[in-house]
């Protein structure tokens, strides 16, 4: 009886070239790769946490010192100034967070096809 010959296995370079060509063909219909979420790693979480703590501490010290100088060393007013400085520091930190991570939500300009590329495709 006849036996079928063994199939040849493709080399790694050929497989990589095939995958790249396939990705190029289906780039318009496949979903884009997911953008990395903020705080997806332990390092990001720890860094942001330490930054928030430092901002809160600095805001408290600044408010405490400012109110202590303004209200003639009153302990209650100094503590109130510290709390006010802490709240202002947290508002600044929230604003920085929004600005920093809102850029990730927008699609990058390089990923959208330019109008000149679209004109070339239409004329072909």
Automatic annotation (TrEMBL):
It is a multi-pass membrane protein. Residues 104-124 are annotated as: Disordered. GO terms for cellular component: endoplasmic reticulum membrane. GO terms for biological process: vacuolar proton-transporting V-type ATPase complex assembly. Keywords: Endoplasmic reticulum, Membrane, Transmembrane, Transmembrane helix. The chain crosses the membrane at residues 48-67, 79-99. It is found in: Endoplasmic reticulum membrane. It comes from the Eukaryota. Residues 107-117 have a biased composition (Low complexity). The keyword Transmembrane applies. InterPro entries: ATPase_Vma12. The keyword Disulfide bond does not apply. PANTHER family: TRANSMEMBRANE PROTEIN 199. This is Uncharacterized protein.
């Amino acid at each position: 009886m006849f036996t079928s010959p063994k199939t040849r296995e493709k080399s790694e370079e050929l497989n990589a070239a095939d995958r790249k060509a396939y990705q190029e063909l289906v780039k318009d219909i496949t979903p884009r790769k997911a953008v990395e979420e903020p705080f997806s790693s332990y390092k990001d979480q720890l860094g942001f946490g330490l930054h928030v703590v430092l901002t809160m501490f600095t805001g408290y010290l600044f408010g405490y010192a400012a109110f202590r100088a303004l209200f003639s060393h009153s302990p209650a007013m100094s503590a109130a100034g510290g709390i006010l400085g802490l709240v202002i520091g947290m508002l600044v930190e929230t604003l920085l967070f929004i600005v920093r991570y809102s850029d990730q939500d927008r699609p990058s300009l390089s990923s959208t096809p330019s109008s000149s590329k679209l004109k070339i495709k239409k004329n072909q």
